C-alpha cells in the first residue's frame, strides 16, 4: 500500500479585542476606504476553540497545525501540543511586508513557514469540519481537489477587483482553456452540481473568471513558490500592502487557478461543502446531520445579529462539548 503523504492544516486567526493590535492597526486604517476595511474582516466569534475540537474529532490524521497570528495566542490554547506550531507573521514574512493586516499578503507568503508540508489545507477561523474527512477529500495522488468551474466576474463590490487581478495574472500564462481541452471530463462532471452549467454556458469564451468556493483550500507549497518565481512583482506588490488594497492585491486563489490550468488537480465534490452567513445559522442542524457535507464556512456580515451569534455558540457547545487536547 502506498504511503499517504503528510498534510498540514494552516489557520489564520486574530484577537480583535487586543488593544495593542487595535492601536497599531489604526495607524494604517484611519484613512482607509470603509467599503474595503471594516470590523467584520477581523471579528472573532468566540468559537475558535471549537475549530480545534472539530479538527481533532474529524481529522485526527492531520500531520501538523500551523496557527498563524501576529503573535497573539488564545489564552485557552495548550501551546505545547505536539501537533501545534505557533507561527508569528515575523517568523516567515520578510520585514518589508510587516506589520500586516492584509489576509491576502499573509496567504501569499505561507510557503515560507518553516517545516510546512508540501501539501497543506488553508483555513480561515470561520471554516469548520462537521463530518469525518480523509486526506483524499483534499488531495489525490498529490493533486489538490478543486472545483474547476469558470465564472464571469461581475463588478458588484470592491473585492471583485481583486478577483479581476487574479484572472489577469493567470491569463498572462494561460490565454486559453488548454486544460479543459485536454481533460474535458474534469470540467464537465456532475460532481460540481448546479455549478456545472457555468462551464457549459461559458464554453465559447476564454477565461473570464472562476467560481471560488469559500471553503478550506488545499494548496501545494511548491505551486506558491513557483508563482513567486514567475510573478514576483505582482505578489510582492500585494505583500507590501499593509491593509487590503483591491486595486493591486491578488490572493491565494491564484494557486487554485494555476493548478486548474496546468491540469494538476482532481474534481472536488460540491456537495461536500456548504457556505452560509452568520445570519443563516438556522441551517446548521441540518448540515450537522448530513452524511454528505463535511466542511462549512460561516461567513461574517457587516451587521451581525447577536441572537444568531448566541445560537451558533450554543449549537457548537451542544455538538462538541468535550475539550480537545489542544485546550488547557
Automatic annotation (TrEMBL):
InterPro entries listed in its UniProt record: Stealth (IPR047141), Stealth_CR1 (IPR031358), Stealth_CR2 (IPR021520), Stealth_CR4 (IPR031356)
Transmembrane segments: none
Database matches in Pfam families: Stealth_CR1, Stealth_CR2, Stealth_CR4
Origin: domain of life: Bacteria
Segments forming domain Stealth protein CR4 conserved region: 289-328
GO-annotated biological processes: polysaccharide biosynthetic process
Domain Stealth protein CR2 conserved region per the UniProt entry, residue ranges: 42-141
GO molecular function: transferase activity, transferring phosphorus-containing groups
Signal sequence coordinates: none
Transferase keyword on record: yes
Location of the Stealth protein CR1 conserved region domain: 5-31
KW Ligase (keyword) present: no
Keywords tagged on the record: Exopolysaccharide synthesis, Transferase
PANTHER family in alphabetical order: N-ACETYLGLUCOSAMINE-1-PHOSPHOTRANSFERASE SUBUNITS ALPHA_BETA, PTHR24045
Membership in a protein family: Belongs to the stealth family.
Protein's name in the database: Exopolysaccharide phosphotransferase cps2G family protein
Amino acid at each position: 500500500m502506498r504511503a499517504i503523504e503528510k498534510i498540514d492544516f494552516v489557520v489564520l486567526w486574530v484577537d480583535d479585542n487586543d488593544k495593542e493590535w487595535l492601536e497599531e492597526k489604526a495607524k494604517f486604517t484611519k484613512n482607509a476606504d470603509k467599503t474595503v476595511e471594516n470590523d467584520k474582516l477581523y471579528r472573532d466569534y468566540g468559537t475558535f476553540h471549537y475549530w480545534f475540537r472539530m479538527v481533532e474529532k474529524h481529522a485526527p490524521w492531520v500531520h501538523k497545525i500551523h496557527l498563524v497570528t501576529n503573535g497573539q495566542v488564545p489564552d485557552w490554547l495548550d501551546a505545547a501540543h505536539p501537533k501545534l506550531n505557533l507561527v508569528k507573521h515575523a517568523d516567515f514574512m520578510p520585514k518589508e511586508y510587516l506589520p500586516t493586516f492584509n489576509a491576502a499578503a499573509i496567504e501569499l507568503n505561507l510557503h515560507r513557514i518553516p517545516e510546512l508540508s508540501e501539501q497543506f489545507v488553508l483555513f480561515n477561523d470561520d471554516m469548520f469540519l462537521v463530518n469525518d474527512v480523509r486526506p483524499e477529500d483534499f488531495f489525490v495522488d498529490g493533486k489538490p481537489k478543486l472545483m474547476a468551474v469558470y465564472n464571469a466576474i461581475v463588478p458588484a463590490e470592491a473585492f471583485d477587483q481583486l478577483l479581476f487581478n487574479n484572472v489577469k495574472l493567470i491569463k498572462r500564462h494561460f490565454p486559453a482553456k488548454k486544460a479543459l481541452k485536454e481533460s474535458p471530463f474534469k470540467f464537465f462532471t456532475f460532481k460540481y452540481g448546479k455549478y456545472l452549467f457555468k462551464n457549459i454556458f461559458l464554453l465559447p469564451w476564454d477565461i473570464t473568471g472562476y467560481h471560488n468556493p469559500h471553503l478550506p483550500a488545499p494548496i501545494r507549497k511548491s505551486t506558491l513558490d513557483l508563482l513567486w518565481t514567475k510573478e514576483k512583482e505582482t505578489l510582492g506588490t500585494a505583500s507590501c500592502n499593509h491593509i487590503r488594497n483591491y486595486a493591486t492585491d491578488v490572493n491565494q486563489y491564484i494557486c487554485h487557478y494555476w493548478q486548474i490550468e496546468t491540469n494538476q488537480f482532481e474534481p472536488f465534490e460540491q456537495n461536500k461543502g456548504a457556505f452560509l452567513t452568520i445570519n443563516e445559522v438556522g441551517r446548521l442542524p441540518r448540515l450537522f446531520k448530513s452524511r454528505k457535507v463535511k466542511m462549512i464556512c460561516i461567513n461574517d456580515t457587516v451587521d451581525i445579529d447577536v441572537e444568531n451569534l448566541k445560537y451558533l455558540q450554543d449549537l457548537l457547545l451542544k455538538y462538541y462539548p468535550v475539550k480537545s487536547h489542544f485546550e488547557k
